[in-house]
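User: Let's play a game. I give you a shape written as tokens, and you guess the letters that built it. Ready? Here's round one.
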């Protein structure tokens, strides 16, 4: 398979054939993110993408899942995405779902009819990096959309029939009162957006990013492990989406949590409380990465 640069995918896509349809992230400005800093965003040539699909067919035979890379395949023209989805479902008889990261701006730029057409063509799941429900924090991290726009992007994807999976970032507000505010604002947005899945990652400083430079300059103080756990606890307590598949099992998290809300909430809170009391180990700092 042919890939350009480092490739990222959600943890749950470990079985998927990774097809790179765009290079990098169309936004590429979030202050905490180091993923595509070495790539300039572009859409790959359709001939190359179709050639990759034919190569994957020969190499893998058949596949059941495909994840479209890099950071925001939804930024592609809808017609091109439909061509790719048609080629994938034509090449792999057992293909069950195609999934992708979705940038909020790209979701907003598509009409409901375009998103519905993509869903009908087999784009089954969109991963949306919500990060926070706080308007001020979205501006501070240069997410490129405000809270109202982020909410609208998520609702559009859900209403198009996509299996919406949102990611939020514990610790993004730094220490003190903003940490709890961030958790509550995030829970409030998720409750309105109503995704089926939520992954809570935990901020880890990544060298080369603007936020990392803020830490070095004393302008931003990351939360302690205890504060990160308390923030996760507050988020978990205030989520009202029913049902909601909740995961906090990323290499950035201090404690691994996984369950369905609302029924598994007490057990997950008990795990956090055990970690807060020092009765269960937490991931040590050198092993954490975003
Ligand atoms: S967090 Fe997502 S949208 Fe922001 S720069 Fe990174 S890949 Fe792009």
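Assistant: Ready! My guess for every position:
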């Amino acid at each position: 398979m042919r890939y350009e640069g480092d490739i990222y995918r959600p943890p749950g896509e470990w079985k998927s054939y990774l097809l790179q349809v765009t290079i990098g992230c169309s936004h590429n400005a979030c202050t905490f993110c180091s993923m595509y800093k070495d790539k300039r965003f572009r859409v790959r040539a359709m001939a190359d993408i179709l050639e990759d699909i034919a190569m994957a067919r020969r190499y893998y035979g058949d596949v059941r899942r495909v994840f479209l890379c890099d950071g925001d395949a939804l930024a592609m023209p809808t017609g091109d995405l439909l061509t790719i989805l048609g080629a994938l479902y034509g090449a792999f008889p057992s293909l069950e779902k195609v999934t992708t990261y979705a940038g909020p701006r790209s979701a907003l730029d598509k009409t409901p009819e375009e998103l519905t057409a993509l869903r009908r063509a087999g784009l089954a799941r969109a991963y949306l990096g919500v990060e926070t429900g706080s308007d001020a924090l979205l501006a501070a991290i240069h997410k490129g959309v405000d809270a109202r726009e982020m909410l609208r992007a998520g609702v559009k994807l859900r209403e198009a029939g996509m299996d919406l999976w949102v990611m939020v970032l514990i610790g993004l507000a730094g220490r003190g009162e903003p940490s709890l505010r961030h958790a509550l604002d995030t829970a409030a947005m998720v409750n309105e957006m109503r995704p089926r899945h939520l992954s809570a990652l935990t901020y880890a400083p990544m060298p080369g990013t603007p936020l990392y430079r803020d830490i070095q300059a004393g302008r931003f103080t990351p939360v302690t492990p205890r504060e990160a756990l308390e923030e996760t606890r507050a988020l978990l307590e205030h989520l009202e989406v029913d049902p909601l598949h909740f995961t906090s099992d990323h290499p950035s998290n201090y404690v691994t949590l996984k369950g369905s809300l609302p029924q598994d909430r007490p057990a997950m809170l008990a795990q956090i409380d055990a970690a807060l009391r020092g009765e269960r180990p937490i991931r040590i700092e050198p092993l954490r990465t975003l």
